[in-house]
Amino acid sequence: MLSRESSATLMSAITAFLYREARLQDEHQYEAWEKLWTDDGVYWVPANGADIDPEQQMSIIYDNRSRIALRVRQLMTGKHFTQTPQSNLRRLISNIELMDEQPDNGDIAVASNSLIFESSLRDDTLWAARNEYRLRHVDGELRMASKKVILVNNDKAIYTLSFLV
Amino acid sequence: MNMMTGVSPWERLIRPDRVHGSLYTDSEIFEAELKNIWYRTWVYVGHESEVPNANDYVVKSIGPQSVIMTRDEQGKVNLLLNRCSHRGNQVCSFERGNARSFTCPFHSWTFANDGRLVGYAFPDGYEGQDKSQLALGRVTRVESYRGFVFGSFAADGPTLKEHLGGAAETIDRLVRTSPEGEVEITAGFLKHRVKANWKFILENECDGYHPAFVHTSIFGVADSMIGKLYGGASTALTRDYGNGHTEIDLRPEFRKRDEPMSWFGTSEERLPDYTARMKTAYGDTAAREIMIDGTPHVMIFPNLFIAEIQMFVIQPLGVDDSVQHVTALQFKGAPDLNRRLRQQTMGSVGPAGFLLADDSEMYERCHRGVLARNPEWIFLGRGEKRQRQDELGFTVGHVTDEVPSRGIWTHYRKLMEPA
Ligand code: FES
Ligand SMILES: [Fe+2]
Fold first, then answer.
1. Are A111 and A129 in contact (CB under 8 A)?
2. Taking burial as the number of CB atoms within 10 A of a residue's CB, which of A1, A107, B188, B202 is the most buried?
3. Residues, Cβ < 5 Å to ion ligand 2
4. A59 touches chain B (CB under 8 A)
5. Degrees to nearest 5, angle at CA B171 with B168 and B175
6. What are the pLDDT tens digits along chain B (419 aa)?
7. How far is B355 from chain A (nearest CA, A)?
8. Is A35 on the interface with B (CB under 8 A)?
9. Is residue B238 helix, strand or coil?
10. Is A79 in contact with B220 (Cβ distance < 8 A)?
11. ω before B252 within 30° of 0 (cis)?
12. How far is the CA of B247 from the centre of ligand 2 (A)?
């Protein structure tokens, strides 16, 4: 990728992509968010640290592509009560970095930090996370092939996390 | 006892078909529960498979108290209180590990993993002191049933077997789902916090009235067969085992279907290894029966919930603050089944689970709702007129009936009332 585009151009495309993802999540645009995924996308929110093996240990979310679709469909019913009414959300994405590591298949390794303010029926909650992405060009557009959200407090008891993190 | 009326306060708050809302919200009642329930009766702490080797430890809890479950060099399981006997510092700050001893970071007292004080820093100054008087505190009685370790702070009282009573059979039913007859707790816990009283969780676990409504969003999109089990036409039962233990018995429905592994929404063909091992272990007929009946859905009072494929441990931290610790059940000798158990458990429970997020939302809304002063009571009379005794003498009702809640409150009142 880097050979075809200057790294500045790539970086601005990635930044725009991450900001767009953030806005779609904050505004509960579930279908548009789902379209950001590749067909083999994996959405992972580990528990108890960053380095557990999700094939052996419990994760908060460990969705393959069909489970991502199921998650979106549940949200779309309007009867997923924990999101009825929907949380009011705003998140800040920062510290966006192209990571050195170059995945085998040419995916782009990107990381960012995020800080999410959630206002729900329960209360206002602040969430903080490290996000690690693998992005891929599909038909000329960036897509997420994987997103790993490492909540800073994922080793503690946390409140319900029913919005798209 | 109220001198004016001759009626105990608990009798005024707990009636056969209703309970007073303050039982969920009054912080003095919560404090009394810690004393009379959590620090007296048998409470589930951890599973032996979490400390498989000598010197393994894992930090657990009884209510707000931190408890270290250790396996000492002799292989014995100990429940130690995480509180230095010097000035109270927590001696263990890691969630799990392997250690012969714990050294308190404050003044460096060192305790063996069976609780004995083995040394203090600068021992001069302690002349004549009897170290055995300065051991770590411990949960007074520790007993385990088929690997499930329970503790009780009461020196006297019923044995664990007596406490479990009829509900012990549900654990027997659980472990025989393994071709080796053992459950393993090895997948790590999700910790899901709710701003609600613990009893909303306790009662919800065997509330078969709500799934058709609370879980409609996921049943609708996942074409799940679970919805039907909790429908009006279901033949499934609720059961009160006494001692606060309650069950939703889904076997009548699974037996009607008569298909092995249907309880888990799968089939023998998709789990050939597991099926073969079960048949070798139990013989064709018994294996078939086990695989049709499935695992139990049982709430062992006050904090151990076995929900077919997962285990929940309820922890109260405050009157409106509780944690649900959840993990996938893993059956020894069943790797192909275990993988599915983990996948399904991750989908359904924990903070982002398709099912538990909505249950937890209900507890929190109930907790806020019940702060309203009127009506004062929570009505639990559903199915009261149609409940009956089963062959073993336990009260049963329709799957949507409130038999479990009434059973829980009857036992609760016994524990809370001064003897
Ligand atoms: S408090 Fe533990 S050694 Fe002093
Ligand atoms: Fe539920």
1. no
2. B202
3. B 359
4. yes
5. 145
6. 455 566 788 999 999 999 999 999 999 999 999 999 999 999 999 999 999 999 999 999 999 999 999 999 999 999 999 999 999 999 999 999 999 999 999 999 999 999 999 999 999 999 999 999 999 999 999 999 999 999 999 999 999 999 999 999 999 999 999 999 999 999 999 999 999 999 999 999 999 999 999 999 999 999 788 888 999 999 999 999 999 999 999 999 999 999 999 999 999 999 999 999 999 999 999 999 999 999 999 999 999 999 999 999 999 999 999 999 999 999 999 999 999 999 999 999 999 999 999 999 999 999 999 999 999 999 999 999 999 999 999 999 999 999 999 999 999 999 999 76
7. 9
8. no
9. strand
10. yes
11. no
12. 14
Give me Rg for the CA atoms of chain A.
16
Q: Is the CB of B86 under 6 A from ligand 1?
A: yes
Note whether B193 and B360 are within 8 A (CB): no
Residues from chain B contacting residue A58 (CB–CB below 8 Å): 187-190, 326-328, 342, 345-346, 350
Q: What DSSP element (H or E) covers A43? A: strand A37-46
- Alpha helix (H) ranges present in B242-324? 251-257, 272-282, 284-293
List chain A residues with CB under 8 Å of B216.
77, 79
Ligand 1 nearest-atom number relative to CA B108: 3
Within the 65-104 window of chain A, which residues sit less than 8 Å (CB to CB) from chain B? 67, 70-71, 73-74, 77-82
